Automatic annotation (TrEMBL):
Keywords: DNA-binding, Phosphoprotein, Transcription, Transcription regulation. GO terms for biological process: phosphorelay signal transduction system; regulation of DNA-templated transcription. This is DNA-binding response regulator. GO terms for molecular function: DNA binding. PANTHER family: TRANSCRIPTIONAL REGULATORY PROTEIN NARL-RELATED, TWO-COMPONENT RESPONSE REGULATOR. It comes from the Bacteria. Residues 3-121 form the Response regulatory domain. Signal peptide: none annotated.
Amino acid sequence: MIRVLLADDQPLVRAGLSALLNAEEDVDVVGVAADGLEALDLAAELVPDVACLDIRMPGMDGIDVAARICGPGASPAVPVLILTTFDIDDYVFRALEAGVSGFLLKDSDPEEILRAIRHVAAGHGTLDRTLTRRVVAEYVQRRRLRPVTAARGIDMLTARERDILLLLAQGMSNEQIAGTLVVEVATVKSHLARLLPKLGVRSRLQAAVWAYQNRVVTVDDTAR
């Protein structure tokens, strides 16, 4: 069962998302918050599998909450999925830097929201497909967060880990990577578990950003 905390300052949004999630057999909404401070308290009390946070909330915005519950030093860390109506790039950049696992627009299809929550709960990052290319390209230009240099990072990776990193940067899921490389999904997960600490990153999403930042892969490569 995936235990979810919802935080949004709009009652109708909270009610709608709660109804959507609780209708699923494998999802349980264990907490609902109307502002950022309440979300912070509930996250500490409930330690959910995923916290779905809005960005603009009274008291403390969703990104500041995320930095407290999933950023460096958070213990236990709670994976965060940002759900918002705002696709302003600076919000996405702040969310990535706060360590969130995913970023999705509220007008996404219900199936996509459910899929994103399951992906985040399973340790996979997700970024709204309409935002991915432009956000990654702009993020590379404007941010210089390089925990490991390209040369050193690539040297530390095995040939198979490099293959997986390239496919990951193209937006492929574990299942798609496994199909492309003709290996088991469990094998992909094992390689990812070893790959992330070598690059000095904490999530699949950050690994993909690292690949673009260090020009291991470029936006033009993913367009082919």
